[in-house]
Amino acid sequence: MTRFTIASFNVKNLIGPDREYYRFQSYTPEEYAWKADWLADQLLTLNADIIGFQEIFEEEPLREVIAETDRRGAEANAASIPDPSKRYHRKAIFRKLAYESYGSAALAFAPNINDSGEPGHRRPGLAILSRFGFDGAPEVIQELEQPLDIPMASLGGDDEEAGYYTLRRLSRPILKVRVPVSGQVISVFNCHLKSKLGEYITPQGAAYPPETVLTAYDAAGRALGSLRAALRRMGEAWVLRRAVLDELEQGRPVMVLGDFNDGEHAVSSEIISGEVPFRNYAWMLRHDARHGGDRYSEAEDAQIREDIDRVRLRSAEKMFLRKSLRDVVYTTAFGGVHESIDQIYMSRHFDPSWPGAIGEMQYYSVLNDHLTDGSHPEVPYNKLASDHGQIMAHMVLHG
Q1: How far apart are CA 126 and CA 104, in angstroms?
Q2: Which candidate, 280, 278, 300, 279, places its Cα nearest to that of 289?
Q3: What is the DSSP pairing of strand 390-397 with strand 332-334?
Q4: For 382-395, how does the pLDDT look when each residue is reduced to its tens digit (9 = 90+)?
Q5: Which domains does the chain have, with CATH numbers?
Q6: Which helix (H) or strand (E) holds 394?
Q7: Residue 171 near residue 125 (C-beta atoms within 8 A)
């Protein structure tokens, strides 16, 4: 039996000091030191074996945070873990308290190809840290070799052209790694889908989009910007889903984590996870029905449910809530709304209800005490911490 933990951590704009990432936004050396200090404390608390990071502008600041975490972890071990001369040093509690260094861990960084490096117009990428290393080279998905053309069906049922939506590149990369854990290789995807912030178009010759002029508020234009953002987010979700299916169709265990920028029941999240099968398809009219009683057979019902279930991902959060009877989990708080937009999904290889499961989740942690309106004494404002909670699944592999 092997235990491991996997976490998702949106760090909120990690970049070095005096480097303007968005317009007029940068960290002074003191602000950067404060942010790095907070991040190291969070990493120390997580102590996760695999971590997917979002909003990483540059690799070096992340490496500095990891190194500082290791330094603090070594100090904590020296203070609280007994050496072999103590007869009680083998007690299980000390294994749980001990911090494990990332000194020999592997780090994969995926820069954003939309990042020109121009001050004030930067774009963040992703990273994955693994104490188990990687099996093979990490893969980055962002520039699509074949553009995703989404044709729209004609509602009239005729051959009239109904238009289509085309996606040529993602707003942020998807990072895929294969992680070897105790002889079992797990395909891990880290993503950060397009946010709900509206996408507005700057007319030729204009300095900025007219929808951003709030003193001349354009409700319809801003709603169209939200539509563009939603289309992009759902298109990116499908690209991720296709990559996940490539792994599942080869029988590989899969875990997907990151900032989905949508709740579990949003269409984009359901695209990633796949459909939930009905309990029974024998009541349903066949696709080629010739009369009202032409339904699927019991054998076909079983086949349909298996075909859907074998490629469906499970939400770690939902499995935890079902198991623990807790009713509050959230990773963001904005405008008085608390919701979970950071997720960990996993294939049925980790669902104990499936006979072929290789492992299962035993617990689910959420670090969200810092998500306040700024009154928390340790987090004066989220610029120097994160506006996301950190989530972690505690996993066990059987055998």
Answers
A1: 20
A2: 300
A3: unpaired
A4: 668 888 889 999 99
A5: 2-274+311-397 (3.60.10.10), 275-304 (no CATH)
A6: strand 390-397
A7: no
